[in-house]
Design brief:
This protein is an alpha/beta fold. It is built from 17 helices and eleven strands. The protein folds into two domains: 337 residues, Rossmann fold, CATH 3.40.50.150; 107 residues, no CATH class. Helix 1 runs antiparallel to helix 2 and helix 4 crosses helix 8. The chain starts with 14 loop residues before the first helix and ends with a strand. The structure holds S-adenosylmethionine. S-adenosylmethionine binds next to strand 2.
Length: 461
């Protein structure tokens, strides 16, 4: 069931903000009377080109649209939406349905590529013809050269699969339009996911049994062509909707869109040229990537077949040094550069302290891993709050994962950390999870069947 937690309204000097909050609470409460309003049982794979790649833990477009739409009912002056953990770009495409300027960043190059493709202001109108040309080119290619230098290739790709993926990679390089090439790279990424020896049932890399690999008969070129056609069709539906709403004029999206490759802990510097944002809408990682969702590992095989310079000029190929490097550089990774001291962190969040103090002593590094994640998360909040407009709003969707059978109160920890940064939690909604692909069904995640949505006002109005 959805429930609202109302906190004190703002100081007397901010009556206007107080009125808005009361109105916002009323509207949220009215909508929450339908227990599925924030959950949505309907599942439309093609909504806003949602399924061009099966990215882990994607939000649901219609739910994010409802959240933004509700916000706009009370604050029609909102123009920009920002996602510091952009993933596959669900929040930003939702913002495009309202003609907003959309901004995002992610540490994972694959996430940046997918989000750039989905939120591009202009797209190649002849993409259908491009798909046929590129697929035909790959089919006509007879070369045997393998176009990836990844270690352990034979473990992850059968020889005939690697040959066809190489032909596709060479063919895509012939496409002269950058957006079309990026679209084709995303399609190739999904083709790699479906045709490699990696199991598709989990996000951690795990090869299928040898007999199963032997039995599998697939043609990456055929898979690619079918996926590309499907992706192009969902794109054209999405763009048509934006055109019907007048958010696309003369084939160009009316707002700004800017997706950057970068660490959420550094956005106060890296986004300084853009200005501040009206609304943040995001879902951060659940915890450290190795024990929750390894976004980097899930992206490792596809990224080994994509030309990095087509993703971003700063994309660093050293990200593929090992299967774990992207996760190592992500929140909670061992590359940690969260500047927060443990005592400062635990003072800022008594909920976290209480939870950490009761953690079992085994595994020995359990406490270290938990606090390393929250140190990094707290450092990213510092930076993120700095790019928000004072009096702007933040919508955080978080999952309360469990460690050793006890739920980490992520929503409460996040509330405390944000309050320490002069922000105010207006309300917390609960959403049931109907469809989201969750981490492996292990002790950490088996209990995650709902998420919390924190609606927050930033700084002083
Ligand atoms: C829950 S996912 C976001 C999914 C997204 N909401 C969607 O619908 O696809 C969290 C994202 O945080 C990213 N991430 C992890 N550490 C990061 C960091 N330090 N800076 C920026 N992004 C990071 C991961 O790469 C991942 O894409």
């Amino acid at each position: 069931m959805t429930h609202l937690v109302q906190r004190d309204c703002a100081a007397p000097s901010s009556l206007n903000a107080c009125d808005i909050e009361i109105k916002l609470l009323k509207v949220l409460e009215a909508k929450s009377s339908d227990p599925d309003f924030w959950s949505s049982k309907e599942r439309d794979r093609s909504d806003s080109a949602h399924c061009i790649f099966q990215y882990p833990a994607m939000m649901v477009p219609i739910v994010q649209r409802r959240l933004l739409g509700t916000m706009m009912e009370v604050r029609p002056d909102i123009h920009s939406v920002y996602d510091p953990f952009v993933g596959s770009g669900t929040s930003l495409v939702s913002g495009m349905h309202y003609g907003m300027d959309v901004y995002g960043n992610d540490i994972n190059p694959l996430a940046v590529l997918i989000s750039r493709v989905r939120t591009a202001p202009t797209v190649n109108s002849s993409v259908d013809a491009v798909i046929e040309q590129i697929s035909d080119l790959a089919k006509a290619d007879r070369r045997q050269t393998i176009e990836t230098s990844m270690e352990n290739r034979e473990k992850w790709f059968k020889h005939d699969i690697a040959i066809e993926l190489s032909r596709l990679r060479r063919a895509i390089r012939n496409c002269t339009d950058l957006w079309a090439r990026q679209f084709l790279w995303v399609t190739l990424a999904e083709t790699v996911r479906l045709t490699s020896n990696d199991r598709t049932s989990t996000y951690k890399m795990h090869a299928r049994p040898a007999d199963e690999i032997l039995k599998r008969k697939q043609s990456p070129i055929l898979v690619f062509r079918a996926l590309a056609r499907e992706n192009a069709s969902s794109f054209s539906t999405f763009r048509r909707k934006l055109t019907d709403s007048n958010w696309i004029k003369s084939a160009k999206y009316v707002g700004q869109s800017d997706i950057r490759l970068g660490d959420a802990r550094q956005v106060a510097n890296s986004l300084a040229d853009v200005g501040t944002f009206d609304v943040l809408m995001t879902s951060p990682p659940y915890g450290d990537n190795l024990t929750t969702v390894p976004y980097g590992q899930h992206s490792y095989l596809p990224l080994n077949w994509i030309d990095f310079q087509d993703i971003d000029a700063t994309a660093d190929i050293a990200m593929l040094r090992t299967t774990q490097e992207i996760d190592r550089r992500s929140l909670g990774g061992t590359y940690s550069n969260g500047a927060w001291e443990e005592t400062k962190l635990l003072d800022a969040s008594p909920q976290l302290k209480q939870y950490a103090d009761r953690l079992p002593t085994k595994p020995e590094d359990g406490r270290t891993r938990l606090l390393r994640f929250y140190r990094d998360f707290a450092a990213s909040l510092d930076s993120i709050v700095g790019v928000m407009k004072p009096g702007g709003y933040m919508i955080w969707t978080v999952g309360n994962r469990s460690i050793a059978g006890r739920q980490v109160p992520t929503d409460l920890v996040l509330s405390e950390l944000l309050q320490g940064l002069d922000s105010k939690v207006i309300t917390t909604l609960t959403r049931r999870i109907h469809h989201k692909r969750m981490p492996d069904r292990n002790a950490n995640s088996a209990t995650m069947r709902e998420e919390k949505i924190l609606v927050v006002r930033t700084g002083r109005p």
